[in-house]
């Protein structure tokens, strides 16, 4: 399966989550790539919708690759062998930098508003795909720390090993495609590009705002 773009992927993913329609679930999208996917899912399910800001912890010499991630409440996931590549001083510095970026994104993309209350709720975590899955793992840790009742991860694409690993961390995982030759999330999208802050705001103000049955927290 190829997806035309993130909107198309979101619509397809939404139909796979039909059982959650009108069930008062909370959809949390990981910005920036997960926002348009999550928007389509939230509109279809008539759910509550917000953005969960989580940042990859990038390698200093290769920012496209990361050794872990940190969520907005300070929940951290770090791959076990990260200490082989970086000193603790380097790790602490990167975490500080990404925490600052998290605060900026909350202020810019969520207008400084708090996350809705997660305690006891069914939370559906959305992204445009999972490569290493570090940001999703940190997001799961946040939901557990905030006592979510049920955690569902839903993405258009992910590699087999990541699906297995993350599936053991949550109550349910929904993945539309898991190609045997999976290398990168972009490979299943015909129209792929990095999403800017301005585009996220545009998506939320136009696309998401058309559903009167969806409750927005931004």
Question: Would you mind describing this structure in some detail?
Answer:
- With 218 residues, the protein is of the alpha/beta class.
- It has helices at residues 6-16, 34-45, 88-109, 134-145, 160-167, 197-207, and strands spanning 26-29, 48-51, 54-59, 62-71, 76-78, 122-126, 150-157, 172-177, 215-216.
- It has a six-stranded parallel beta sheet with strand order 8-7-6-1-2-9, with helices on both faces. Strands 3-4-5 form a three-stranded antiparallel beta sheet.
- Strand 3 and strand 4 (62-71) form a beta hairpin.
- Helix 1 (6-16) packs parallel to helix 2 (34-45) and helix 2 packs parallel to helix 6.
- The longest helix is centred in the middle third of the chain and has 22 residues, at 88-109.
- It is globular.
Helix vs. strand class = alpha/beta
Described by the principal axes of the CA atoms, the overall outline is globular
Task: Provide mean pLDDT, rounded.
Answer: 93
Biggest beta sheet attributes: 6 strands, parallel
Strand content: 15-25%
- What topology, given as strand order, has the largest sheet? 8-7-6-1-2-9
- Using only CA atoms, what is the Rg? 16 Å
**What percent of residues adopt helix (DSSP H or I)?**
25-40%
Give a quick summary of the entry.
The chain has 218 residues and is α/β, with parallel strands linked by helices. The chain has helices at 6-16, 34-45, 88-109, 134-145, 160-167, 197-207; strands at 26-29, 48-51, 54-59, 62-71, 76-78, 122-126, 150-157, 172-177, 215-216.
């Amino acid at each position: 399966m190829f997806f035309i773009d993130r909107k198309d992927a979101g619509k397809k993913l939404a139909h796979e989550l039909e059982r959650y329609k009108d069930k008062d679930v909370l959809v949390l999208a990981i910005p920036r790539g997960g926002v348009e996917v999550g928007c389509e899912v939230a509109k279809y399910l008539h759910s509550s919708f917000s953005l969960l800001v989580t940042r990859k912890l990038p390698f200093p010499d290769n920012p496209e690759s990361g050794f872990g991630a940190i969520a907005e409440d300070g929940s951290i996931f770090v791959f076990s062998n990260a200490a082989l590549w970086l000193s603790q001083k380097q790790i602490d510095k990167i975490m500080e930098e990404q925490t600052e970026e998290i605060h900026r994104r909350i202020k810019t993309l969520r207008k400084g508003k708090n996350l809705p209350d997660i305690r006891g709720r069914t939370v559906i975590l959305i992204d445009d795909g999972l490569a290493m899955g570090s940001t999703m793992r940190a997001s799961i840790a946040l939901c557990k720390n905030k006592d979510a009742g049920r955690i569902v991860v839903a993405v258009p694409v992910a590699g087999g090993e990541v699906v297995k690993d993350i599936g053991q961390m949550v109550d349910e995982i929904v993945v539309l495609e898991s190609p045997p030759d999976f290398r990168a999330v972009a490979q299943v999208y015909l129209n792929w590009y990095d999403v800017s802050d301005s585009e996220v705001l545009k998506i939320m103000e136009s696309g998401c705002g058309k559903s009167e049955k969806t409750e927005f927290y931004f």
